[in-house]
């Protein structure tokens, strides 16, 4: 069967204004397109910018500059990852869905972010992620070629296993910086490559973590993410809607089994794991790292600690992380009116986040602005004990102007 026409199939379902945007975009970037980068490729960038041809051109040209700076086109053939990344970077392709799209499995609990960032540079960690994406997209493109559709844009399916997920490692500032850098890299340079993402075995704390990173994700990406708890019946049913059982390891409801009954098929999917300390480039104490990035305060018995933040732009977001020593504390966030009254945005509640527990983490979008927001640690219910609180609170601009923040984090990672 001859391959499907590159152009006619790509624009079949487009509205007239979208067809016009595609035509305009195609003409404006004709000088930088490579062979095989037809309408399906161009539509990735247009969809990422809501069919604004000018914005899509800017996005594409900036991505080409990024690829040149990072030498992305030569990563698979000219870059040798450090040993720690080769041995402990978790992911792998286990099969394809019914349309031939590669299925990427990521056992997230195997990502030792602390160990890896003590063994390799942030630059190499980001480079490894880019190389892995390029490898998977290359395989997706080869599948399309075999299916007689070489002109179609390759896509991927991701299955992220969040079993045993802990948010604590990501309260360490370097880890947070890398996460933001990777999100920026993905959204800026790999638009519309995701067919679907299944996040399975997600604990309740994951919803808090996802709410923190969601503002940095394009809405098109968010719509393709499906989050499931540890209820295996539900997420297995969702996977099987478009994936045959022979394309999944037995651990995930399929029939694949590796050597000696290996239900996770570790010969296909690298599990990651704890990086041994003899691979560390430097040894530091985690607590010192965390304490150095946090502020500490004593909230006296019967007293309150109130922190005020002036929000200038609607859509800004307020993010907090905190923990206490030995005892709980009541926490709330209020929005203050000009007349002095205040309304609870986060209702007051007692929080038990002592040293041995994970920090309390949350984020809100400040839709009403300009306004004053107050973060309150309330110890007035205690008449006997002073509470020590360690906290980080960040007021960040709205997503439309947050790119500069993420660029800065990416720059820190590069340097």
Describe the structure.
The longest helix is centred in the N-terminal third of the chain and has 25 residues, at 122-146. The strands form 3 sheets. A 5-stranded mixed sheet has the order 1-2-3-4-5, with helices on both faces. Strands 6-13-8-11 form a 4-stranded antiparallel sheet. With 415 residues, it is of the alpha+beta class. The protein has helices at 6-11, 16-28, 39-48, 53-70, 75-78, 83-88, 113-117, 122-146, 173-189, 204-213, 219-223, 232-240, 286-293, 399-414; strands at residues 92-96, 102-107, 156-161, 194-200, 225-227, 295-299, 304-311, 316-324, 329-336, 342-351, 360-366, 371-378, 387-396. It is 37% helix and 22% strand. The termini are far apart. Residues 1-8, 282-292 and 399-415 have low confidence and may be disordered. Helix 2 (16-28) packs across helix 3 and helix 8 (122-146) runs parallel beside helix 9 (173-189). It folds into 3 domains: 6-70, N-terminal domain of phosphatidylinositol transfer protein sec14p (Helicase, Ruva Protein, domain 3); 84-283, 3-Layer(aba) Sandwich (Phosphatidylinositol Transfer Protein Sec14p); 294-402, GOLD domain (Jelly Rolls, Sandwich). Pfam families: CRAL_TRIO. Residues 276-395 form the GOLD domain.
Backbone shape: globular
Share of residues in helices: 25-40%
- How are the strands ordered across the major sheet? 1-2-3-4-5
Query: Average pLDDT across residues?
Result: 85
Oligomeric state of shown chains:
single chain
- CATH topology-level name of the largest domain: Phosphatidylinositol Transfer Protein Sec14p
Largest sheet: 5 strands, mixed
CATH architecture of the largest domain: 3-Layer(aba) Sandwich
* Portion in beta strands: 15-25%
Secondary-structure-based class equals alpha+beta
Counting DSSP H or I runs of 4 or more residues, the number of helices is: 14
What top-tier CATH class of the largest domain fits best? Answer: Alpha Beta
Write out the CATH superfamily name of the largest domain.
CRAL-TRIO lipid binding domain
Give the tally of β-strands: 13
Low-confidence runs (pLDDT<50, min 5 residues)? 1-8, 282-292, 399-415
Organism: Cloeon dipterum
Protein name: CRAL-TRIO domain-containing protein
InterPro entries: CRAL-TRIO_dom, CRAL-TRIO_dom_sf, CRAL/TRIO_N_dom, CRAL/TRIO_N_dom_sf, GOLD_dom, GOLD_dom_sf, SEC14/CRAL-TRIO_domain
């Amino acid at each position: 069967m001859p391959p499907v026409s590159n152009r006619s199939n790509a624009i079949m379902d487009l509205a007239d204004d979208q067809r016009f945007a595609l035509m305009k975009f195609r003409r404006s970037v004709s000088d930088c397109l490579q062979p095989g980068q037809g309408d399906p490729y161009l539509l990735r960038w247009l969809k990422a910018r809501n069919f604004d041809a000018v914005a899509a051109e800017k996005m594409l040209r900036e991505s080409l500059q990024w690829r040149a700076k990072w030498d992305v086109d030569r990563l698979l053939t000219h870059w040798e990852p450090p040993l720690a990344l080769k041995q402990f970077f978790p992911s792998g392709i286990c099969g394809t869905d019914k349309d031939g799209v590669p299925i990427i499995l990521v056992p997230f609990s195997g990502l030792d972010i602390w160990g890896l960032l003590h063994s390799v540079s942030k630059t190499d960690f980001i480079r490894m992620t880019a190389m892995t994406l390029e490898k998977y997209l290359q395989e997706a493109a080869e599948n399309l070629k075999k299916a007689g559709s070489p002109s179609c844009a390759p896509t991927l399916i991701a299955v992220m296993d969040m079993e045993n997920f802990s948010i604590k490692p990501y309260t360490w500032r370097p880890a947070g910086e890398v996460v933001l850098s990777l999100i920026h890299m993905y959204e800026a340079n790999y638009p519309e490559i995701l067919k679907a993402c299944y996040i399975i075995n997600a604990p309740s704390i994951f919803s808090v973590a996802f709410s923190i990173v969601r503002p940095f994700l394009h809405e098109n990406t968010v719509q393709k993410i499906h989050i499931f708890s540890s209820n295996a019946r539900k997420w297995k049913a969702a996977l099987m809607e478009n994936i045959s059982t022979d394309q999944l390891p037995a651990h995930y409801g399929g029939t694949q089994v590796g050597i000696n009954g290996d239900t996770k098929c570790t010969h296909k999917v690298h599990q990651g794991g704890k990086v041994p300390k003899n691979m560390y480039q430097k040894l530091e104490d985690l607590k010192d790292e965390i304490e150095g990035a946090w502020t500490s305060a004593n909230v006296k018995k019967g007293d309150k600690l109130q922190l005020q933040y002036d929000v200038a732009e609607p859509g800004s977001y307020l993010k907090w992380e905190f923990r206490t020593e030995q005892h709980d504390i009541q926490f709330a966030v209020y929005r203050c009116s000009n007349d002095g009254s205040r309304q609870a945005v986060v209702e007051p509640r007692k929080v038990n986040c002592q040293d041995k527990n994970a920090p309390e983490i949350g984020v809100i979008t400040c839709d009403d602005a300009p306004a004053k927001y107050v973060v309150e640690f309330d110890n007035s219910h205690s008449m006997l004990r002073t509470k020590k609180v360690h906290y980080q609170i960040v007021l960040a601009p709205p997503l439309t102007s947050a790119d500069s923040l993420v660029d800065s984090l990416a720059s820190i990672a590069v340097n």
